[in-house]
Every structure is written in C-alpha cells, then in structure tokens.
Amino acid sequence: MLLQNLSDQLLHELGRQIVQGAIKPGEFLPKVEDLSEMKGVSRTVVREVYKSLAARRLIESTTKIGTVVCPRSQWQWWDPDVLTWASEMEDNHEFLSRLTEVRLALEPAAIELAAKNATEEDIRHIQACYDQLQASVDHEDRWVKADYDFHYSLIQASNNELMISLIQTLRLALERSRHKTFHVIKQHPAEPFQEPNEEILDRHKAVMLAVCERNGALARQKMYELLTRVSQLITTQDHIAN
Q1: What tens digit of pLDDT does each residue of 161-175 get?
Q2: Dist CA 211 CA 46 (whole Å)
Q3: Where are the domains of the chain?
Q4: 41 or 241, which is more confident?
Q5: Which of 23, 81, 129, 212 shows a CA-CA span of 20 to 30 A to 5?
Q6: Are 170 and 176 in contact (CB under 8 A)?
Q7: Band of the pLDDT at 242, cuts 50, 70, 90?
Q8: 3-state SS of the chain?
Q9: Which fold has domain 90-241?
Q10: How do residues 65-112 score in pLDDT, each as one tens digit?
Q11: Across the beta sheet with 66-69, what order do the strands follow?
C-alpha cells in the first residue's frame, strides 16, 4: 500500500507538471536513479511512474536518449488523469474552450438521438433531473452536480453506449467547466433575459421540452444554442481574467 501511495503521489506530481506546462514537450526527465534519489523513493517507484506516464503517451523512454516528454498531439487526452491535470490548471480557459468544442461536436447529435430513442422511463428521468436543476440554481455546488446529471440524462437517452462512456470520462473536467461558467453567467446574463436564473432555466427547459416532444431537429438546435452560450461565457471569463 505504501509503495502504491508513493507511486500515485509521484505520478500526479509529474503528470501535473507535464500537462500544465512546467515540464515542456521535448524536455528530458531525470534518469531513474537520479529521480529516485531526488524524491527519496525507490527506483521501483520511479520505474512504475514512468511506465504509467508512458502508457498515457506523455513521455517516451529509450535506452540511448533517455526519457523525453512527448508532443501534446500524442498525449492520451481521454485518460481521466490527463483530463484532471489539465482541468486543474489555474489558467485553464484554453482547455475549457477545447472541451466545449468537443461538446458542440457531440451533444447536439446525441440530443437528436435522444429525441428519437428515449424510452418513457428516460423521459421521466430527464424531467426529474430538470426539476433538480431548477431547485439548485441558486447554489453553485448543487447546481454543478444537477447540471451534469441533467445533460448526462439526455446523453443516456440517446442509448448510444460510446457517447455515454465518453461523457462519463469527461465528468470531472465538465464539472470544473461548470464552476467557471456559473460565476460568469450570474454577472452577465444575455439578452433578452432579465436575470441569470431565467436564462439558465429557459435554455435547459427548451432542450428538455424538445426531447420530450421528440422533435430531434429542434432539440439539436436548442442544445447547440446552449453550448454556444457556454463557449461565450468561457471566453468572457478569459477576458475578465486578463
């Protein structure tokens, strides 16, 4: 257990440094024996950590040149740890923008499928998740969970296992994105909405109703509009930060 804990600690330390840019692509990591001495852990621990990082395609080790950080294009971005390390960055606007681009590519199509494939039980679950969203709109932590659950209920209703699995993988990153947008929308509701809660609930209700009415084209459109607004909120947050 101790060995595993030491391995996990070092893995997350190095993983964060690589993904968050403290150690850049093309840079070399210390030799196993050197890092072992620097961190006060066994060489076995270091080897296990390097093996785990290599499995995520963050590093590559060869006998002749040593252990080098791979280009970002080679990283296994769908790995939950890589997503977590990226979302934990203090300045993570670029990552969240890319995450929203993925959502824009995926969720409108999934919602159109949901309108077509949802069972009556799925519809009831979606409506219950919307009720939870409505009840939590003034409490950040509860809203973040309720908003994820609402969107996930829609993805589940698509009955497409690949889409469902992908959203599960993205959960932590999506929750961090929601924390960001929650603060911005409370300060900057869009026209023609008079106040933030009205905008939040109206946009989500429009998606829910379209799915419940089995209007796939409208459901796709309303989800696209909702996620486009999310993208605008992340951009607004970036401008505020700078």
Answers
A1: 999 999 999 998 999
A2: 50
A3: 2-74, 90-241
A4: 41
A5: 23
A6: no
A7: very low
A8: CHHHHHHHHHHHHHHHHHHCCCCCCCCEECCHHHHHHHHCCCHHHHHHHHHHHHHCCCEEEECCCEEEECCHHHCCCCCHHHHHHHHCCCCCHHHHHHHHHHHHHHHHHHHHHHHHHCCHHHHHHHHHHHHHHHHCCCCHHHHHHHHHHHHHHHHHHCCCHHHHHHHHHCHHHHHHHHHHHHHHHHHCCCCCCCCHHHHHHHHHHHHHHHHHCCCHHHHHHHHHHHHHHHHHHHHHHHHHHC
A9: Four Helix Bundle (Hemerythrin (Met), subunit A) (1.20.120)
A10: 899 999 999 999 999 999 999 998 888 888 999 999 999 999 999 999
A11: 28-29, 66-69, 59-62
Q: What is the residue type of 18?
A: I
Q: Are 147 and 177 in contact (CB under 8 A)?
A: no
pLDDT at 176: 87
Two tokens at 124?
A: 């009831």
Share of the chain above pLDDT 70, in %: 95
Contact at 8 Å (CB) between 85 and 15? yes
Contact (CB, 8 A) for 57 and 70: yes
Sorting pLDDT into bands at 50, 70 and 90, what band is 154?
A: very high
What would be the CATH architecture of the domain defined by 2-74?
A: Orthogonal Bundle (1.10)
Whether the CB-CB separation of 24 and 69 falls below 8 Å is answered with yes
* pLDDT, tens only, 44-53: 999 999 999 9
Contacts of 238 (CB under 8 A, 6+ apart): 93, 97
